[in-house]
Specification:
The structure is a homodimer. By secondary structure, chain A is an alpha/beta fold. Chain A contains nine helices and 26 strands. Chain A is globular and about 70 Å long. In chain A, about 50% of the residues are buried. Chains A and B meet through helix 4 of A and helix 4 of B. Chains A, B: Belongs to the NADH dehydrogenase family.
Amino acid sequence: MKVPKILILGAGYGGLMTAKGLQKHLRPGEAEVTLVNQNSYHYITTKLHEPAAGTSHHDHARLSILSVIHPHRVNFIQDQVTSINTETKEVTLKDQSEPLSYDYLVIGLGSAPETFGIKGLLENAFFIRSIDSVRMIREHMEYMFSRYAEEKKDELITIVVGGAGFTGIEYVGELVDRMPELCREYDIPLEKVRIVNVEAAPTVLPGFDSDLVSYATDYLKNKGVEFHINTPIAECTHEGVILKGGEEIKAATVVWTGGVRGNKIVEDAGIETMRGRVKVDGQLRAPGHEEIFIIGDSSLVFPSENERPYPPTAQIATQQGQFLGKNLVSLIRDGKMDTFAYHAKGTVASLGRKEAIGIVGKNSKLMGMKASLMKKIIELRWLYLLGGISLVLRKGKF
Amino acid sequence: MKVPKILILGAGYGGLMTAKGLQKHLRPGEAEVTLVNQNSYHYITTKLHEPAAGTSHHDHARLSILSVIHPHRVNFIQDQVTSINTETKEVTLKDQSEPLSYDYLVIGLGSAPETFGIKGLLENAFFIRSIDSVRMIREHMEYMFSRYAEEKKDELITIVVGGAGFTGIEYVGELVDRMPELCREYDIPLEKVRIVNVEAAPTVLPGFDSDLVSYATDYLKNKGVEFHINTPIAECTHEGVILKGGEEIKAATVVWTGGVRGNKIVEDAGIETMRGRVKVDGQLRAPGHEEIFIIGDSSLVFPSENERPYPPTAQIATQQGQFLGKNLVSLIRDGKMDTFAYHAKGTVASLGRKEAIGIVGKNSKLMGMKASLMKKIIELRWLYLLGGISLVLRKGKF
């Protein structure tokens, strides 16, 4: 009897949770599970804004995959996916001469920055999207601050954050926390530093309750953050940004958080996408591909026909992974599958270490310390799902 | 009766020691002493190679001037000297509208990098010469290492150190110590890093005993350092260095330690100089200027007519400051002055935290741990001279 091969691409929230589920629910020999990821570690995307500002070390935002995956149950291959062939059912990796074949493919390759065609953004801006990229943002910013002592140019200590969505606001919150320490380190008067948040949409944190949005923006403005809302960036240069209307903001550090799109590999595989993301069916399958499942930022899930899709979050990716871990077992055993339903448990956006805003359940608003505590609980819960209480104790920050 | 005005420019080893001496030996009202320095702190030049490599924090290489100078005895002005007028006996500062007048002037303005006309060096290389400059070297290097994760270009983790004199070798020694930690931080295999030391002269550490030179180079080669001795740098570009003969070494970080020259302000004052340094008389006076004393890196002291001048070191600057602190008091009181004599107590060059080579007294050689301990004792002695045992306890690293 042939053992089915399940191949999982990407160890983000979705892929890692699928692998954990299969590891737990499959009996030995029931399927051969392989997980491919380009790094030896999973990174906790919801915390990347912290090392990007330097308020915590990047090691707090990653964990070794082999600390949560059992190598006897799941084969782990550290490599980069270069292409997917849906005809031959094979996946090509960068460093392996032989492609990997699959019976079931789970794609959780995450997202890439969406620049909306803004000129110069890809070349000149930084992106909060991986351990490598946030470490580079921190180091770049610190290098610019160190140069200020000799060159005294204001743009060296000006930081422009493009996008006032979730990541943008959380990052600005961390920057506000970091600046006093950073200014002491480089002998710079705090009031010389400029943090500028630029957003094309008419509001900060779209989708959030207006009371909470006011709380967040009042807090950040109070700390000196400048907001340019309803103001698209026309161009990003190596000297800063040019706003629509012509105003130039000179800044040595520009960080773009304005949006994400699906991974190009999915598009290139001939799977139908919208901005690189795949509108999946009730079982999270790609249209026309019974054996291909798409989860996380590469997938699009609609609440109902006429509504906007759920935004790409760690929360939905985790739920998709949990669902798929069970559903694939059921499919292999009985040929049956359940239908995925997303349960929104609420959202919390941090504003630095001690402040946050959030909604719990459907409508319960939280602000300040309470919201900040809730954010920490959510992070600890993710560690618990992955590695139980021992991982919480080892990696959790209290 | 007119109280004489003593103006000290620069709070390096020489200037600070002069101020300390005057503070100690002068009776209240006997003279008006003013110390001008561009920073609020003195930096311990002999330790700057450590923060430049990142093996210690730059705060360990500086101390607040007001922690060692009593403001009732010595006026301290934090400002930058822009020019000296020897005719009107006035010194102009950057931020003060009125110039400062003096009866006696002590110039201890230190040195500037000597580039020997090497093209592109001033524009593209870094220099170990102040807290600001070494902090920038550290941050630049770390930023280049962080970029390696994304760009994988070998030149990002290649460091060229120009000059194999005292500072060059000490800096290379610190880099060797720092690399394992730096590579862990940025997920880089240690063997990928290149440290290249380039020296135009036919030997490393000119003036040092050949046994000690062998000990040092063997140790550093063993740690992977590449030496290009007898090899002048023809040009420094933004991509690295081009050696005489045409070989190019691509390196994102080039640090020049190949030599120093006197401060240009001394030259511009119309005082006779050789490469910006003033050949002083036995009382450390500038030729033709009875009331101007030059100490530290701006001064040239010859053992005798036909010998080479003493190299510019913290040791000679300290002795000059000690001498001048007493001699100025004697001059004011009795119109008499002693003659300066340099007592070479030995030299120790560190090779990272645990290794060093040195000569104590005239001929006693030290290597390894013993030499390293001696280096620490020398550093503690400087703190003791400045601020007694309390400063040793507060700032000393044991």
